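Hi U.,

Before I forget, here's the chain from the pilot set. I'm dumping it here mostly so it's searchable later in email.
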Amino acid sequence: MDMPLPLIIAQIINGLIAGSMYALFASGLTLIWGTMKMLNFAHGEFFMLGGYLVYYFYAVLGLNPAIAALLAVGIVFVLGMLIERVVIQHLLSSPVWQLSTIIATLGISIFLQNVALHIWGPDFQNVPYFINGVANIFGIRIAYQRLLIFGVSVVSISLMWFLLKHTRFGLALRATSQDSDAAQLYGVNVLAVYTLTFGISAALAALAAVMLSPIMGVNPYMGLSPLLKGFVVVILGGLGSFSGAILGGLMLGVIESLGVLYTSTEWGDVIAFGFLVLIIWVRPWGLLGVEERN
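Structure:
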């Protein structure tokens, strides 16, 4: 079935926009894995809380969308640090800490879902667009909200890249991820790095939800699909690779978008996970991951 070229280009653009949010969400997961070597199953609930908070501040209280977004991201950032300090940090010294942190984050996920369900109920809540209107770019119509999503994603990922590569915290984080014991010997406060990294990871998830909420709405279970796709992106790009998370997110978005064009929306997740299986088969350590040798 032949598709007109403008439609294909429009789908690629939509895929890049969606992929930029996948990359933003997954970069938080990969930061946690790269630094703490743990899987955070509550990451989707930080996404969900970001959506509900921007809904409350923007749609209910009527605050400026920029202020509402900053408040939502800031609150989730503080909550992430608090959870790491109160719950996660005490489990890291356990002999089976990998299993303990999985159980703990699953418990946090269920707890936060039920809190949201009790406060806001099970129904979808709508968030108005931050910016209305449609841009016409070479005959391709794109909503300004989607362009805003892409712009915020590019700026946020660029700031994260700068933070990791050109700041003392980034140096401490990279040292901790490579060898936490050696980093401590050189004066790095590893526990503080863990706490800040967890908070930044939560904030990235919240920011993704803030930008996507006007398009997808908010509900207590909205974090599950992004969490699954976030894991796909992290594995696809290579565990612990920030660059891999960006590349994997963009690729997944484009592949999903083009796949839906030729099939249907119900096949989106099938295409995503099928592509993951293919990559793992060809390159088990991910696109930008490093093969571990004995």
